[in-house]
Design a protein that fits this description.
heterodimer; A: 392 residues; alpha/beta; eleven-stranded mixed sheet; 11 strands; 40% helix; 13% strand; globular; B: 81 residues; mainly alpha; 16% helix; elongated
Amino acid sequence: MKYYVVDMCENGNIAVDDTILVKGAQTAAGSRMLEGFKPLFSAEAVTRLESKGYTISGKTNVGEFGLDLIGEFSYFGDGEMKSAAAELVKADKVKAVLGVDMNGSTRRGAVLSGVDFLKPTYGTVSRYGVVSCAASGEQVGVYSKNADGVAEIMSVIAGHDEKDGTSLPEKSYEYKTDIPVSGKKVCIIKELLDMASDDVKAKIMNFADTIMAEGVLVEEISSDLFEIANTAWQILMCAETCNNVSRYDGVKFGHRAEKYRNIDELYINSRTEGFNFLTKAVILYGSDALSKNRYKDCYDKSLRVRRVVAEGIAKLFESYDAILIPAISKTTYEKYDISEAFVKVFEESIFTAVANLIGIPAFATCGVQLLGKHFDESTLLSLANCVERKGE
Amino acid sequence: MKYEIVIGLETHVELNTESKIFCSCGGHSAANEPNDCVCPACSGMPGMLPVMNKKVVELAVTAGLMLNCNINRYTTFDKKN
């Protein structure tokens, strides 16, 4: 499998995905539109890792702007139905990979490859130097082989950055993998479990059995919040992406069409050639959601739904410490045509969207996904750690 | 038909702040050479984020109060790129 888009250092111990800026190395976010763009600065997360002695090995392949299922639709990729970053970690080539979780592609990729990915609480890791798509829900996270690896890298990259206006004021955060889990309460969402295949269900049940043996109380409950959260997030994500990619017009950086007769054709031809079908679908859907006739019913409504979901999930967390759900509906994906991508991503995002919508941490591990309260990554890491230790 | 007259004013004012409105680049007075006061953030490079200058908000609110205007509790920005 083609892991890297850009090779940087053979002995590097950390890779970063292609949506994260590394000074001087092409950062294209999987898109032809940014082919050849070499940033003048590194992302804050990368700078922090380098200052602590980590070396960047290269840039791993991602799907165009991170919009697809797991990275299958990249201009630079080989179309394999696997995540380059997750496979790199699985093959023990690096200690960890930084990835951007915008619509769940990182979590899906991690679970498919059997490695861990943490999407931390929104605002804990600086987004300075991330090729932005959906600014209100995307967050830099970490792929690693186990909870300890994730915690180690998170403690380096998390903390306030004045260069990011959405960065929270705390200077640093603690990530523990060994807090006592006995007595914790975890719920499984029936509706999401019903949508998953039998082998995914088996993984959830296996995870539940293992933590129950450690004294965790696991209950199955019913909730319709996840479905409305997904609809709202897909609308917001498309709207924000449509805004954020509007700067790619073929004039300032990246790809420019060779043939054009006037400025309109320059924009049109550059974008036609530069973006793939999925990105175009997202742009059109986003423009529609933001249009005068639909703004109130689509965009504005989704912002209200975001608050309703946040309140609903907060209520759930009054009774439970974590939510145990699938990250994907099956254990393998087959190749498919890009014309089906928009709908496929929408369907699969029902498991992942809520974490992006309301900024809670989500940990993909052992074939399952754990959601937690804001800033409560340690509970998720510790629960996963119990199961990972058992598996060894 | 009866019309209600609503008049909006858009005012462009150069403020005497130490830095620009969305990044830490020096303002007009800090420029010595061409391209002195430009950075990846104000040129809208991929991956860069605007950070609001507090002083600008302070000055805008002060001007509003001086002119006896209503000050909105909630204000949003639309940045071009």
